Amino acid sequence: MSPVFGKLTWAAIPVHEPIALATSVVVILAIAGMGIWITANKWWPYLWHEYITSCDHKRIGIMYIVLGLVMFVRGFADAIMMRAHQYLAVGEGPGYLAPEHYNQIFSAHGTIMIFFVAMPLVIGFMNFVVPLQLGVRDVAFPTLNNVSFWLNASGALLVNVSLFVGEFARTGWLAFPPLSEKMFSPGVGVDYYLVALQISGVGTVLTGVNFVTTILKIRAPGMSYFRMPVFCWTSLASNLLIIAAFPVLTVTLALLMLDRYLGFHFFTNDGGGNSMLYMNLIWVWGHPEVYILVLPAFGIYSEVAATFSGKPLFGYRSMVFATMVICIVSFTVWLHHFFTMGAGADVNAVFGIASMIIGVPTGVKIYNWLFTMYGGRVRFNVPVYYLLGFMLLFVGGGLTGVLLAIPPVDFVVHNSLFLVAHFHHVIIPGVVFAIFAGYHYWFPKAFGFTLDERLGKAGFWCWFVGFNLAFMPSYLLGFWGGTRRMQHISDPSWKPWLAVELVGAFFIAAALAITVWQLLYSIRTREQRRDLTGDPWDGRTLEWLTLSPPPHYNFAVLPDVHGEEAYWHRKQLAIEREELIPEPNYQPIEMPVNTPTGVIVAFFSSLCGFAIIWYIWWLAILGVVGAFAVFVWYAWRDEHEHIIPIEEVIANARERRRIRMDALHTVSQST
Amino acid sequence: MDPVGPVAAAEKQILINSTAIMLAIIIPTMIATVAVAFWFRRGNTKAEYRPDWEYSGAIELVVWAIPILTITLLGGIAWIGSHNLEPSRPLTSPNKPINVQVVSLDWKWLFIYPDQHVATVNQLIVPAGTPINFQLTSATVWNTFFVPQMGSMIYTMPRMTTRLNLQADRQGVFPGRSAHFSGDGFPGMEFNVRAVAPQQFAAWAQSARGAGPVLDGRNYAALAKPSSYVKPMSYSNVAPGLFEAIVAGRAPPTPQLPHNPQAEGPAG
Known about the structure:
By secondary structure, chain A is mainly alpha-helical.
């Protein structure tokens, strides 16, 4: 091992693997092209000041969502490669991916989709929406928020670097030992996995701390807990789960790192190690993780259901209660991921029943959305398509989930394609559809113009059809004994079903292509689709009170909240009185200054992470020292905040009042 | 799903019952979802708009009660099913069970018959209508022993022993495989279960004792080397205590060959 370059040699570059090489070249060209385009348009200063160094929760939210969508393309490319390979690798056919390559792809697909797609997207929505809904100016720790984002991006970067330099884990997305131990996985793949997740995990925990503090401590005057929108409640539950669960992940992965790097024996076959321990620990994190993702998604659906039905959410307190029950019970079910370990009938039955209990509050939520629409005037905008698609599909995913929670049923479908179908059946309608609903719902708030409805609906139908084709056959294959993570399938009679699934994947590809086209088309036609009112959907929560896009400080004065659905009541009052509330006394506003701390810390963490993966110890030390130095430098800063002058505040506020008065006149003329 | 034994048949029955119970709830829910959304669409002037209707104690009671009752019923099924079908629980049968020790290797299955003193690789021959009492472990990483038509699967884990009881009611050949990802040779970790008439089984055991190599330490080490899609074979004798030695970690460990030698680096 070289003292300068560690394990890194030219052999780490995949010149002999055409697929990896071609992907690398395409990605590098795409990044270079993007860089040139931005430089040519002189956009760097704008990006630097308005996004990269911004502590504005809205900008950070948008960066998370962009990161999530870019990584979605990467994760989906993995998915379609797998589906194509499965179709070709049946019976006599060898397929086109060797085992060591195929195994990297499914491991990367799972890791990316959970950690670098679903997490950034969900956290992105929480960032953008929660402070607005609470009626405040930012999160509790704006700079920390920026650091969280960049640490997440650093993890995502390392996962992508593994494509060009070395390899990724070939162990599945949870890297079970002993397979992931040095003895069985001597390469750098598992190290990429561990280091990337450790760095992004720190970012996620910081997000959890930030949002729990924000929701508990920083709310508009009068915004008591039981006046918070349901999305804030579900975000609170999700972030509580992050704080409780992610440290478990960090410790678990740290123990595995000790095994791999320093020859410890936590999970090894020899030296008294026990791999069963890892299985328990990783799922103590892994099962709450599911709810970290799906609870905010439920929150998005709740907002969409109420807004587009023109009614308050049915059974608000019941929904809050259901959310908190899920939050707690989710920590008592982890063992259902390994009923087949042979823990005994009592243990299996207890965890099986605990898992089913989660179905109760979830079922209640479905009925409450149903009764929210009941008696409403449902507007069939794109988010409602996703809501209904979700409600129809998710009950099926719930059904198969309860089946898996019955130990004797699990004994025949555990780790099968039935399981793969089940978790895609809950995550795609549950989380991905919610993300698309939220994307269409809040896009006008973020950018001041709406997305094209026709293309949005076309995208929905591609998703809906594609999902059903791509995953429903897997239930059948699972019943017939189909196992997951198979690089080759020996039963030729499965080929037609795998063909159907491949066609489904193409439909999903079309959905993604339509989404990109919809964005470009909507940008091009943005002048006709401007949201001038700040409230394009006749919303009920405070984010619709301010302008679209909102000013950096969100609200000129923090709104007074007098009940649930703060903005709806304010609007009704204005319509009743035919006037806005009297103009408040405006003050200059203090906002945190931009800082490059996050991006520089993330730069040094990426260096450090890369160095640890390749055993380049001097660089690892440099990375740690660099990151710490930046932190010290930041702690010594003189300027914390800048003042937004009162003239600017007043100008903005009066502009908003004028717009709302116009809207009010339109309403009173029509009634 | 074509069960050939009591375990698989019972599990299939539980699966069907539970699915039916839940479908009775979710199909009406799905229909109601579509119907409500359609009827209360904005354009429908016949639908009554109740903009402030947000709570009904009676409805809340019902929407909590429906899932609670369903889960209570299914929870009962889960409790009873878990106990009746606990993998370590011996099956009730007039016939004396045969013992089989299962070892997962990279990437093949070793079946040791401790009473017959023979062993096979990737082929499990059992008498039909007789319970089989499995003891399972792994010599390398985790795997899952699974014969879909016979029912319950179970993990094979290094340095640990799991137990499983299955039975094939009729004669035939039933495919089995590892159902837990174990590395690059994983897809080739397939085997067949051949359930034969009891006399045939005795005859086979007799003939197997007279043919093929002996499974001693040297041959075990050769077998343990990573290989996949291994053709079925048998051993005429087995070193006593081999299974226990594997569980205790005294048999040679078998690292997987790195498929990507550069990952180690030239000096590593």
